[in-house]
Amino acid sequence: MENDFSIVLCGAAGQGIQTVESLLTRTLKKSGFNVFATREYMSRVRGGVNSTSIRVSSNPVRAYIERIDILIPLNEEAIPHIKERISQQTLVLGEKQFIQTSSENDCERIEIPFEQLAKEIGGKIFANIIALGVICGLLNVNENTLHTALSETFKSKGKALIDENIKAADKGFEIAANLIRNSKIKREFMLKRNFDVINDYLLDGREAVALGAIAGGANYVTFYPMAPSTGVGTFLAQHGLDFSIIVDQSEDEISVINKAIGASYTGARSFVSTSGGGFSLMCEGVSLAGMMELPIVILVGQRPGPATGMPTRTAQEDLELVLYAGAGYFPRIIFAPGTIEDAFKLTQNAFNLTQKYQVPVFILSDQYLIDSYYNISSLEHEKLEIKKYFVQNDENYERYRFTESGISPLSVPGYGTGLVDADSHTHTEEGNITEDPTIRKKTVEKRYKKLELIKKIATPPELIGNDDYEFLIIGWGSNYYLIKEALETLNREDIAFLHFKQVYPLHSSIIDHVNKAKKIIAIENNPTGQFAKLVELETHVKIDINILKYSGYVFSVEELHQKLKKIVEGD
């Protein structure tokens, strides 16, 4: 038995690829397999070429790979679109006109007239379900498991449609059985099952961030639709009434940030969901939050820029934008989750930290993490706590009181008898406008005191690999599992990986890690090595090699393996 298989569906938007992906991953998990799925798609409502990649394994899988074991092309453009990923080991199943498209590799191709068979059942709309049945049949999935998934998916459509879909799936199982029986397929697609995963959750980055906001006590959410973060806002809108959350899809990003700040002033735990281009419009508002010392959590879903760039592709290009956004200096916290679990826990904790330190807290994600998912057993949400830091005010209350820590008492209007002032200007402890140079100096120092406190509680980076390393890889955010698996395939004792889920401020342990390394390699999805530059700035240690990708597409495990292999072997 092999360790895992990669299945790819490729076709145009509107051909039902996402529905098949959902049905397949749910069915495979219920059959005792681990699954991982990610998608790449064009920014079009219909047309173009989209693909979804699904890994199915007896062991946990969490990263994108180039290899394709089973490919189902759904139009003429599919194979040309992903031809670089096709090898001699790829099994291509589909319509004659789709699978005969020229390819550089002599892969195994089997013609299956999905549309004709679908018409015999009730219409070509069932072609994808037949293909789904073929895949499940090749992987030895029980028919009833897929039948259940189909019944759950189409229960609102009525029994007649459910029956037709089950009939289509059974036709796919029949085709797979004939292919296996007649030895028309060169390899077996057999995996060991792990029935512990049957009750796991399938969770993507979008849902994880949204659930983290809910677990963090978010009660005012505002956003303007902008890929890849739109799904976070819509998920919270769908469940807002269940958790007493006001969700406001506003008219533009300037309105979004200002509404969130206003809500924070009245005591709401405000959450903003946006992307790099939208956040650019919010920078003045973020600066206002910094001056007013108001708690706010902001998700920035990164995508390739500048301007509209590539709306549905992935990048790590907005670190410097978020780090330096706003006029003047004020402290902030920036998290960059690398896993689904991180996306949930870091977002939840962001709400506690923003309330405690009264600084903006950012969740810096990207399209790859937002749109990817895998099975997990638990988010361990029972251990999490919503911490509140409001104090009751009185007639002596000073919103911006100078304290030894730099943190002033936080209160809201109406919670006591005092005045809760707020101002965008340099202000006194009471909140009155001033241009007194002594007070200006004290307010600047106040903000720096908070930064020093935040540094002390910074999340340390995770070291993966042998502590006695020669080569040190530095990475952040969604590249976590990609680098981790590439490192596993290298299987060398002299190389380790230091992953950062908090990218600002950096934990002090970074100094010891970088000073131990003979060669430091940074891996990022941007053209300038933004995080590498930040590390150099903070540690005064030069990064030796940057592995940078800025095509709009994610790294693959194989790609990183090859690049790292050349470096460590001195090629």
Strand and helix map with partners:
Layout: E1 4-13, H1 17-30, E2 34-40, E3 47-57, E4 70-73, H2 78-81, E5 91-94, H3 96-99, E6 108-111, H4 114-121, H5 127-138, H6 143-153, H7 159-181, E7 201-204, H8 205-215, E8 220-223, H9 230-239, E9 246-249, H10 253-265, E10 270-275, H11 276-292, E11 296-302, H12 319-324, E12 333-335, H13 340-357, E13 360-366, H14 367-371, E14 373-376, H15 437-456, E15 462-465, E16 471-476, H16 480-490, E17 495-500, E18 502-504, H17 510-516, E19 519-524, H18 530-539, E20 545-548, H19 557-568
Parallel strand pairs: 1-4, 4-5, 5-6, 8-9, 8-10, 10-11, 11-13, 12-13, 16-17, 16-19, 19-20
Antiparallel strand pairs: 1-3, 2-3, 2-14, 7-14, 12-18, 15-17
Mean pLDDT: 96
For the record, the CATH architecture of the largest domain stands as: 3-Layer(aba) Sandwich
**Gap from first CA to last CA:** 34 Å
Structure annotation, total helices: 19
| Widest beta sheet: strand line-up | 6-5-4-1-3-2-14-7
- Give the helix/strand class: alpha/beta
Q: Biggest sheet, open or closed, and with what strands and sense?
A: 8 strands, mixed
**What's the structural domain tally?**
3
Report the C-alpha radius of gyration, rounded.
26 Å
Task: For the structure shown, list the relevant keywords.
571 residues; alpha/beta; Pyruvate-ferredoxin Oxidoreductase, domain 3; Rossmann fold; 3 domains; eight-stranded mixed sheet; seven-stranded mixed sheet; 19 helices; 20 strands; 38% helix
